[in-house]
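Box S2. Input/output pair 1.
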Amino acid sequence: MSSLWWVPSLVVFGTTALIVIGVVYVVRLRRRRAIASGRIADPRPESIEQLEIRAGQALVQADEAVRHGAEELAFAVAQFGPDATASFAEALENARATLSSAFERRQLLSDVTPDTDAERRSWSTSILEACAEIESTLSEQTSAFVDRRTDERTAPERLAAVRTMRDEIEARVPDAEARIARLSKLYAARAFADQRDAVPKAREQLAVADRALADADAALESAEPAVPHLEKAENACAAASAALDALARAEDRLASADAELRSTISDAERALTEAAGLRDASELPDAAEHITARMAELRGELDAVAAATGPQTPLLSIDSIRSAHAALDDALASARSAQRRIDTARDALTGALFSARSHLESAREFIAANRGRVGADARTRIAEAERQLALAEAASDPVEAVDIARVAARLAQEAGDLAHYDAGPRTAPIMRGR
């Protein structure tokens, strides 16, 4: 056997060892880079000396942050006044007090008195935390006023844009007045009571916007803050636009209600015809008598709507007919087969959902327009009405869905009534539930 028989094995084992060493090196290198970048935590505790060095650096940065904050506060006071910068001044004073305490802890580390390792680590850590708090608070305050100065630099352009917005809203007023006139001829006042004063509301808000725009003009001329006045003008314009938008939606809603009323009447007439057939075919006298009474109620509602003259309230007419129709449905329940009852409920579901959605939309708009005066009772009912409507829309059983939708409509009506009560013309409104 050759004396060099061991050479191949040495080559194999040596190559394997080099590969293992290389893999270990790469893994350790990647781990060090990950720790340096902060992607993973370093399991080794930081030495006390390193911690004290970082605390000293943080103190320098915090001291500079306080100095910079004082300069920014001086600029802010000069531009916006002491009242607008009161929170900045308070934050700066707190930062100075915190910085002073941090310097005291640093002095404890620097004096000749020996300190334990636990004390050195605790004081350094508290210095780092205090400095981070100082920099974060002052950075937030400084950024806020830097943003305000940026807003002030663009105030002239913003002023022009608000004026354009205000003029566009005013141009909509004649159309709104014509819309009010149309609605007043077609519908009773209660049908769109919440939007009858849309034009006066819009004019009132435009007047507020005019005063705010004049104040903004004066502020720009005297190099004073103009943004607060511009924000007030923008809010007033938004309120005026919202009033006119609500009026337009009310007209659309009432037009839809007219079409729905015709469909409701047609459904009720078909129901009366079917009810007559079921009544006549019933072998139960009590059931036939009950059906006859409910038919008379529904016929009375239909005749009342047909005989009405002058401006109408279609949504209320829909509600009265559907209420009588629902009572007739209840009377017919025992005479219908399960499938017929489901078919009838499916036909009625569209109308029931329409009523619920209409009452909800009306109540929501009123609460949105009077949100500061409407209490918890109205808001609770409208939330429950919304929940019931969602259940009705999701229900797989049409009979169940119709019942739930009617509950949603009733709750929405109650929410509207409560909201009107809360926001009604009283010297000192009762703020229930607040």
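Box S3. Input/output pair 2.
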Amino acid sequence: MKILIADDHAILRSGLRQILAERTDIEHIGEAANGKEVLQKMRTEHWDLLLLDLTMPEMSGLEVLKEVRQHWPDVKVLVLSMHAEDQYAIRVLKAGASGYMTKGCVVDDLLHAIDTVCSGEKYITLSVARKLANSFSSNSSLPPHERLSDREFQIFCMLVSGQRNAEIGRELNLSEKTVSTHRNRILEKMNMNNFAELVYYAVEHGFVNRPTQASNGHSL
């Protein structure tokens, strides 16, 4: 099989390449350092599996995943992320990923996950399976960040990381007013009164390490 590794860290790509090179059933291993490069390589060559990071320059992993599902539906996508399962796993599985792994996993588990998704099955842990089942029962039972749309979730992550409305607008090709509207919807959907509460939630759930500066320029 042919595997494309998509991650913006060269050392991690090199490590994964060394691990996968020991497999006799892997014909070719490719690399991409950002989202646009992933799509470029998808257009020019056939791949069986995409090992996809979520946090990359140019395009987020979620945006790449949507493009891959739309244009190359036969390609299996295994997300390999630094983010904990409860932050992203449900969202990427619903978006069409075949599995979700954290970068802290052991090699044997990663190889098992690759074999599982390449055989046409989904790879999820028991805890994620339970969360996924609960997510279909009632929206009120979801954690607040899971109530957001993919675009809202993307903007939520950018906001709590310290980016201002204008910066987000430039990066996502949106007007500052549109970003502000999304921000208000995020607060409403997550039942929060202000940006400080949003940052506190992000810190408590591991989306950011610590609050630095709110997007309006005031320290928290």
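Caption for Box S3: The first strand starts at residue 2 and ends at 6. The chain has ten helices and five strands.
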